[in-house]
Design goal:
Elements: E1 4-11, E2 17-22, E3 25-31, E4 43-54, E5 56-61, H1 80-91, H2 100-112, E6 115-123, H3 131-142, E7 148-154, H4 165-174, E8 179-183, H5 192-206, E9 209-214, H6 218-233, E10 241-245, H7 254-267, E11 270-273, H8 284-287, E12 293-295, H9 312-322, H10 328-337, E13 361-364, H11 369-375, E14 381-384, E15 387-391, E16 394-395
Parallel strand pairs: 1-4, 5-6, 6-7, 7-8, 8-9, 9-10, 10-11, 11-12
Antiparallel strand pairs: 1-2, 2-3, 4-13, 13-14, 14-15, 15-16
Helix pairs in contact: 2-3, 4-5, 5-6, 6-7, 9-10, 10-11
Length: about 400
């Protein structure tokens, strides 16, 4: 017996159907109006013929860093990665970063915008220890698991240059972080071999993944990718390593890029991007169906940048514009990257509107998927695990 019937919705713009949900799973679909009489014990939600999409997946977030819901914080500090790190470290305590209320505020924004799962990098360093991870977990628990959060223990301030951070990453992995992170092995630690040696040793011993922030561009970034490829090839981590940002991939010469893509595909090394303006477009056509590609918001109103609102549909639009997507098929692909195609980034075998998927469903008033992408309409209804968690752009308590 279904617990909830979501009636008259158009999955991916197809013909209207009724969706049956039992517990937190989709357990049946049939043409709208053909559903047998619903038992009195089942709740019914009228989808009003709206477009239905799977809940969005934010494959690269920092939910521990934001000053959302606080008074405006003016951008400050020195430019560049090193400058932003130093500024954040100097100022974060003033804004109670990290904290449970701060993380919860961002997770609530995710739900309002239809994001029901995220991979979040959470800072682990000598100043906060594992407190950020604890804050994010508590915030997710307060929302009763409406947003599934996969945690990457992230050494924002470096690994080798900060003695004790490797031990913190090891402790985070032992405590349940699904991945450990790295950052610019060449320009932050200035010892890429030592950083990668340390990360891979922990990951193999603790049976976790690796997710490395790589901002270095051009051939320096390409060289770092070569080192990562070599380490994955010699390890047991095939299919468990991700590169975040990886701007260099779009900057390499065509032949060099093609060779690297072949190696990434062979070893199951995935990629995540936040599609920032002025960055080099990724070779998405060559990556499609060969290399896992996910989209994310990165930081949202934090000490790195005042921008961001947690809307993954807006990130998908940015990806489409950066990469020159135009056709209906291409625009729909951008939306798939923000949902269905990102399942592996949060440990899911499937994430769809089909039988067996967790009932994470977003309804929008749109003609079709491309229309939803280019207009970025309000999320009229959001279901997470079979529960209505947002409606009309507001969180449902």
């Amino acid at each position: 017996m279904a617990d909830l019937l979501l009636s008259n919705v158009r999955p991916w713009g197809a013909e209207p159907v009724d969706i049956e949900i039992t517990s937190d799973r989709i357990t049946g679909t049939r043409p709208a109006g053909e559903t047998p009489q619903t038992p009195a014990s089942s709740a019914v939600v009228d989808g009003q013929g709206m477009l239905a999409l799977p809940g969005f997946i934010n494959a690269h977030a920092h939910v521990d860093k934001s000053w959302w819901n606080q008074p405006w914080v003016s951008y400050g500090g020195e430019p560049g990665t090193q400058g932003r790190i130093a500024h954040e470290r100097a100022e974060r305590d003033k804004y109670a970063i990290p904290s449970v209320p701060g993380a919860r505020a961002i997770l609530e924004q995710f739900l309002i915008h239809g994001t029901t799962a995220t991979r979040s990098h959470v800072d682990v360093d000598l100043g906060v220890g594992l407190r950020g991870i604890e804050s994010v977990r508590e915030a997710a628990a307060e929302l009763d698991g409406a947003v599934q959060v996969e945690i990457v223990a992230f050494p924002q301030d470096g690994v080798i240059r900060r003695p004790g951070v490797l031990e913190l990453l090891d402790a985070a992995a032992a405590a349940g972080a699904t991945s450990i992170g790295g950052i610019d092995p060449c320009t932050i630690d200035r010892d890429p071999v030592a950083q990668l040696d340390g990360l891979f040793e922990i990951a193999e011993r603790r049976d976790v993944g690796i997710d490395i922030h790589l901002h270095d561009g051009g051939e320096l970034g390409g060289f770092t990718c070569d080192l990562i490829v070599d380490r994955v090839r010699r390890s047991g981590l095939h299919g468990r390593v991700n590169v975040s940002h990886g701007f260099a991939l779009g900057e390499l010469a065509p032949a060099r890029q093609a060779d690297l893509l072949d190696e990434l595909a062979e070893l199951g090394i995935s990629w995540t991007t936040v599609a920032p303006v002025r960055s080099a477009p990724l070779p998405w056509r060559a990556m499609r169906d060969r290399i896992g590609l996910g989209l994310g918001t990165d930081g949202i109103r934090d000490l790195w940048s005042p921008f961001g609102d947690g809307d993954m549909l807006r990130i998908a639009l940015a990806f489409a514009r950066l990469h020159g997507l135009r056709t209906d098929e291409e625009l729909s692909y951008a939306v798939e990257l923000a949902g269905t195609r990102a399942a592996a980034f949060v440990g899911r075998d499937q994430h769809s509107l089909e039988l067996g998927s967790r009932a994470d469903i977003v309804l929008v008033d749109a003609q079709n998927v491309p229309d939803a992408l280019v207009r970025v309409p309000r999320r009229d209804l959001v279901l997470a695990g079979g529960r209505v968690v947002a409606a009309g752009g507001d969180l449902q308590q």
